[in-house]
Amino acid sequence: MTTATCQASVASTTADRERALYTTMLRLRRFEEKAGMLYAMGTIAVPCPLGYGQEGAIAALVDVLQPTDVLLSLSALPGLELALSASPLTVFQRLAGSNDAAGAPIALLRRPGEDVSVLNRPEPALVPAAGRAGASIVLATGASELAPFVDPSRAKILAILMVPSDRRPDTSPLLAGMPFRECDGTHLDSISDALAAARDALAAGETHVGLMLLTPPYAGHARDPGRRPAARRDSPDPIALYRHQIVSSGRITETEASAIENAVRDEIAACGRAITLACAP
């Protein structure tokens, strides 16, 4: 294979990955917007947690997962379900369930060779030992949630704290021997590199590795822009930033990016219509 052919192959692979990441980010955003509308209309019973600015972090996390990894999210994040290839209609159906479950502690569990499961209780026993099963990854949005999972007696764990950068939490309740490495969650490449480095640290013998993904404090699809803090009003849309990046690289054209946007919009709209009809009295 010639050097030129090799470079063309790498560029093609990179463009495919960028398309996939952009598609994932858009699906998360459009789903949340539609879910908010359906909740306001009373079609779905359980409010949808909004991943303000976290679409890129979720997309990058799923992108670096290996088939043998075990992933436990301490919240049943709809965006994570979608990124893990769940159908938007399936997630809408879950949110349309009984409102009695809205306050219950629930989690998502992904095991090798199995579909993603929604759990009633996010228990530490659900995370197996790392090794042949791949990396054991625990994702949380609060430091206190992680405390039961970072015990010295437990197996190796990659603990990921995903929080907006203007809400950096106090990690002192966690083990003093597990400092958290911070990562700028604005850029997907930075997140991918940080996740790869954390995985390598586990493989090199570290017992627990903590990674804090500081996502952009963006709240662009909140209902009342005037009530947002200044930091959230002024923050750029991370999806718009990524679109500019991939189009300006020349690997994806404006036409291709627009086609992705239209396809995602139509997919979410169709699923929204389907769940509205299914829930109609």
Helix content: 40-55%
* CATH fold group: Rossmann fold
For the secondary structure, the number of strands is 7
Globally, the shape reads globular
Largest sheet: 7 strands, mixed
Describe the strand arrangement of the main beta sheet, using strand numbers.
3-2-1-4-5-7-6
CATH architecture classification name: 3-Layer(aba) Sandwich
Question: What is the gyration radius calculated from CA atoms?
Answer: 19 Å
User: SS-based structural class?
Assistant: alpha/beta
CATH class: Alpha Beta
Structure description:
The protein is α/β, with parallel strands linked by helices. The protein has one domain: Thiamin diphosphate (ThDP)-binding fold, Pyr/PP domains (Rossmann fold), CATH 3.40.50.970. The chain has 9 helices and 7 strands. The chain has helices at 3-40, 55-64, 78-83, 88-95, 143-146, 188-203, 230-234, 238-248, 254-279, and strands spanning 70-73, 107-110, 117-119, 136-140, 157-164, 180-184, 208-215. Strands 3-2-1-4-5-7-6 form a 7-stranded mixed beta sheet. Helix 6 links the parallel strand 6 (180-184) and strand 7. The longest helix has 38 residues, at 3-40. It is globular.
Describe what is shown at a glance.
It is globular, with a radius of gyration of 19 Å.
